[in-house]
Every structure is written in structure tokens, then in C-alpha cells.
Write a structure and sequence with these properties.
Archaeosine Trna-guanine Transglycosylase, Chain: A, domain 4, about 425 residues, Pseudouridine synthase, about 20% helix, 4 domains, 11 helices, alpha+beta
Length: about 425
């Protein structure tokens, strides 16, 4: 299975919730670590960036970016939801011309105060506003929910019918476009609501980058799915880059493993995209003339390749043997040398032989494990190694620790892990005796 990490721009249709889109992407890519960078109303359409794999670590760097929308503003009726899905609460036959609308728009550019609609996902005392509204417990949003947002661009595109206009909006995160439409109507003395909303841009992501779920499924069938993934460094292209041509070996190891290194140039306390010899390592920060990687997004092999732990093989519960993949359970190792939980391609050395292996570090949640164990399946090993010293050298992280729905599903994943480890270790220097 090809490991996928990056951002997918989903072209969300009206009627699909943002969480539904996340679920669909998770299924299409067979990836559990998936999350969107900010909801888009179910009734709205347009760009919905969804992070896959370690790209979910970029949430804080993507969520606050500016948005761009095209909305249809309709004069003559106001609704309780402030959009076309609600119940009409006020109506008027008063006409609004294009010139009158153009004249009103500048007052809504800049920082403006909004009272969010009661039919929204905001919460008060732990309960969603829309649920309280449906029960008739509130008729307007509480004062504490008022917010200041920024509208940086607002223009009339065209008149689409009597009392109907398309407008383009550039705004900050958290801006309610339907509330903006209602407020423009109030400024002109005419009830108004938003009939349609299309998000055309979210940060650096545009409609041109976006795919429908149906298109992604079709691309998967053709083996072209991964061409739709925006690489992690391009996803944060708005963050300034810092390119390092090279470092002494010791400083390189320190940087890769999250330790600070002396660094004289660059602005303090701001994020950078860090590249070492043109290879993207992740996001870093300079503090007091020291550079540190704060979000590691480089090749995970850099952080564990060559790491090793040594201990003694001990008796355990033999669950691996019962599902066809016997493992050696390691004890007596230095816990400070242990990599994070997950499954790794490793080389195990025992009784003078070096064996390609798969090592699991974790609690084995599928079989009800509670304590952390280090278990190594040595590919092709058939001997008895209980009580023998063993050294495990880590070469590449294959995946995180996961809980499967059944032992059969776990067995299938282990078989995939073994195959992946064999490919990684085929020409590895670490298969030589340590």
C-alpha cells in the first residue's frame, strides 16, 4: 500500500456535511488519520481541504487562512436560518437596484461585528444553538456569541434576476456569509437571505485543486488517486522557506531528532518550511539564535534509521503464534532508546544471525493488550530464541499502532507489514551483522 500524506481538496456538493466528506476520503484512501481544516455548511458547496496522514499536524497552519466565496443574495424575504432552507420570517416588495447594492457594500468591508445565526453549530452551555432553536428555547443568538470578523473584499458580480444578485466575498475564518447577506438587506431596509453559497478558495486551495468524491473514486480505480494529493510542503507554501545547504553530521542528527542547533540568520519566533539539501523536513522555528524542528514532516526513516535496542527474549502470551506470525517479546531494554509506538521494518540479531523483521511497539489493542510490549517477528526464523540476547535495529516506520475490528483483519495487516518490510530491507546495509 502506498503511504499517502498531504492535502486533498474535496469539491463538496450541497447536502453533504464536512464530516461526511472526511468519512468518504478516509474510505477512498484507506487512511484513518484524516481531518478537515474547517467546516463548510451542509447547504454550501465548494472547496473543502482535508488533511491526510501526518498532514493533520498542519491544522493550526491552515485553519486561519482567508476564504473566498460567491453567494447569491436575494432581497424580499428573510428566513430564520438566514438562507434558503429556512422559514420565511419577513417579506417586502421593495426593489433593490444594482447601484443601490453597490453603494451599500463598502460599509461591510474591513472589521465588522456579526451576530451568528441561531441555526449554527456554535454552542452555549454545551448545547448547539441550532438544537436550542429547534426546541424553541432561543430566538436569537446570545450577546456573548457576537464576533468581530474581517471582510477584505466585497463586490457585486452580476444581477441574476429580480432582487437577486451574485456577490464575491473575501473574508477571515469564522465569517458567516448568510449573516452578511441578512445584514446587507437590513442596511438597505429590505429583508434578505442567502440563496446559494460556493466557496471558491480556502487559504491557498482553489476550485482548480478540487475533486468530487466520485472523481476520487474513479481516479482510484485507474491507479491515479495519488496525483490528486497536494504535498505537505506545498500545502503550507504561504509559510516562508528556510533552505540549509548542509550541516555537520552531529548537527544534522540533532536537528532531525528535534534538538536545537545554533542558527544565526532568520527571523525569531515565526514558522519556517525547513529544507536540508532540498529535502523537506517540516516546520521549524528560530528562538534565541537556535533552530528547532517543531513539526516533523520529513522521511520518518531519518528519525529511526540505525536506532537500536538490546535486551533478552522472554516468554509472553504467544498470540503471534496463534495467528501465524510468531514473535519474540523483548525485555530488559533501555526504555529511553525506544522509538514511538508503531510498526517498524527492523533487523533482529540473535545467536549470531541477522534477520529481516517486523517489530511492533505498543499495547496491541486488537487483542486486549494493556501494557506496552516490544514484539519482533523475524522473517524466516524457525529456531527457539527464548532467554537469548537480542538486538533490534530500526530501519523504517511502516505505520502507527491501530485497533482492528477482528483478529482476521489484524492477520491480514501483519501480512501486508511483512511484505512491506521485506521490500524496505531488500538492499539494506542493516541486514549485515551489527
Amino acid at each position: 500500500m502506498i503511504k499517502t500524506e498531504g492535502v486533498i481538496c474535496v469539491l463538496k456538493p450541497p447536502g453533504m456535511s464536512s464530516s461526511d466528506a472526511v468519512t468518504d476520503v478516509r474510505r477512498v484512501f484507506d487512511e484513518k488519520r484524516v481531518g478537515h481544516t474547517g467546516t463548510l455548511d451542509p447547504a454550501a458547496a465548494g472547496v473543502l481541504p482535508i488533511c491526510i496522514g501526518r498532514a493533520t499536524r498542519l491544522f493550526d497552519f491552515l485553519v486561519d487562512k482567508r476564504k473566498e466565496y460567491i453567494a447569491e443574495l436575494v432581497f424580499g424575504q428573510a428566513t430564520d436560518t438566514e438562507d434558503a432552507t429556512g422559514t420565511v420570517t419577513a417579506s417586502s416588495d421593495k426593489k433593490v437596484s444594482s447601484d443601490e447594492l453597490k453603494a451599500a457594500l463598502p460599509a461591510f468591508i474591513g472589521e465588522i461585528e456579526q451576530t451568528p445565526p441561531i441555526y449554527s453549530a456554535l454552542s452555549i452551555n454545551g448545547e448547539k444553538l441550532y438544537k436550542l432553536a429547534r426546541k424553541g428555547e432561543i430566538t436569537k443568538a446570545p450577546e456573548v456569541k457576537k464576533r468581530v470578523v474581517t471582510v477584505s473584499g466585497l463586490e457585486l458580480i452580476e444581477k441574476t434576476g429580480e432582487g437577486r444578485f451574485l456577490i464575491r466575498i473575501e473574508c477571515s475564518k469564522g465569517t458567516y456569509i448568510r449573516t452578511l447577506c441578512k445584514d446587507i438587506g437590513e442596511a438597505l431596509g429590505v429583508p434578505a437571505h442567502m440563496a446559494f453559497l460556493l466557496r471558491t478558495r480556502s487559504g491557498a486551495f482553489t476550485l482548480e485543486d478540487s475533486y468530487s468524491i466520485a472523481e476520487l473514486r474513479e481516479m482510484k480505480e485507474k491507479g491515479e488517486l495519488y496525483s490528486a494529493v497536494i504535498p505537505m510542503d506545498r500545502a503550507v507554501s504561504h509559510v516562508p522557506e528556510l533552505r540549509i545547504p548542509g550541516l555537520p553530521a552531529k548537527q544534522e542528527r540533532l536537528l532531525i531528532h528535534g534538538a536545537p542547533i545554533p542558527f544565526e540568520s532568520g527571523e525569531e519566533r515565526r514558522p519556517y518550511r525547513v529544507y536540508l539539501r532540498d529535502e523537506f523536513l517540516g516546520l521549524g522555528e528560530i528562538r534565541e539564535k537556535e533552530l528547532r524542528i517543531t513539526v516533523w514532516l520529513g522521511d520518518e526513516a531519518h528519525q529511526i534509521k540505525g536506532m537500536k535496542i538490546s535486551g533478552t527474549v522472554c516468554e509472553h502470551n504467544h498470540i503471534g503464534s496463534t495467528i501465524g506470525f510468531p514473535t519474540a517479546n523483548l525485555a530488559g531494554y533501555d526504555k529511553k532508546q525506544l522509538p514511538p509506538e508503531g510498526v517498524y521494518a527492523t533487523v533482529a540479531v540473535v545467536e549470531g544471525g541477522a534477520y529481516k523483521a517486523v517489530t511492533s511497539i505498543g499495547t496491541n489493542p486488537t487483542v486486549g493488550g494493556e501494557s506496552l510490549t516490544v514484539e519482533t517477528h523475524m522473517i524466516g526464523f524457525e529456531g527457539d530464541c527464548y532467554g537469548k540476547p537480542m538486538t533490534v535495529r530500526f530501519v523504517k516506520r511502516l505505520r502507527g499502532m491501530m485497533k482492528f475490528g477482528s483478529v482476521a483483519e489484524l492477520r491480514g495487516q501483519i501480512a501486508s507489514d511483512v511484505k512491506a518490510a521485506e521490500e524496505v530491507l531488500e538492499n539494506s546495509k542493516y541486514t549485515e551483522i551489527i
